[in-house]
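USER:
I wish I could look at a protein chain and see how it folds. I am handing you a single protein, as its sequence and its fold in token form. As I understand it, each token names a local backbone shape. I hope you can help me see how the letters and the tokens relate. The protein I mean follows directly.
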Amino acid sequence: MVSPSSFRENDVTQNPGPLVDTEWLATHIEQPDVRVIDVQLDPEAYDRGHIPGALRWFALATIMDSDFRHNLDPAGFAELAGQAGIAEDTLVVCTSEHPGLGPWAYWYLRTMGHEQVCVLDGGPPAWAADGHELSTEEATALTVERVGVPVREDWRATLADVQAAVGPDGPVLVDVRTAEEFTGEIFLLAPPGDDERGGHIPGAAHVYFEEAHNEDLTFRPLEELTALYDRAGVDGSGPVITYCAVGMRSAHTWFVLSELLGYADIASYDRSWNEWGRLPDTPVES
């Protein structure tokens, strides 16, 4: 596990930094301006046990629309945050038993204009392993009023950005899916008869997102993370675009590169292969 003090601090002084450990959360969890959000793909995971007071966000019904694209509507986000009791000065702690979802929620919240956000290193499993109790009680929050703000576009990569990146002079493209998705052997989303093609964007490096974690789901030490991405040609010297299938794992690697390693000019292609692999004229390698 890496010490949160190793990471650069965010601009907001109340924010402890992008990553916190269970000791920090145990000390601050009762503060009224701290809100824990448990992000899940499995609807039953929350019921099996979550950090006390954590609100349930089912990823595919909150952050994403039915077409597996992010809900980037400012008014929609304001409603979602308001219903969760997330005021503008609330510190949101993103957590999940899935290693990619806490960082993904961090990217989403920050991209939608909420500044005070951090990720619990290791999620609920680390919380339990460190001797803290899990709860099975559904948490609720008082609704607050929020006003939507423009999306932070510099942390997103569009289709045009990725098309411009294909070639020797563009940003480094990093595919963070499984090796089988990268080679086109399997599809994450495509049902029978779908028009999705298999493979990867030409020239993309491959670093599976879970390689950034230890076996206990905490993040690997900074020197190991630096070496991991350096081998893929990502050393902080130039712009990088990350992508996956629908933008979840892509945002996780964005978090590692931008928020943990402090590299500049990192963007997540949030429509990822869900868009690229379905277009008839985008180049594909396998």
About this structure: The chain has two domains: 4-151, 154-276. DSSP finds eleven helices and nine strands in the chain. Residues 248-260 form the longest helix (13 residues). The beta strands are 19-20, 34-40, 55-58, 91-95, 117-120, 172-175, 205-206, 240-243, 266-268.
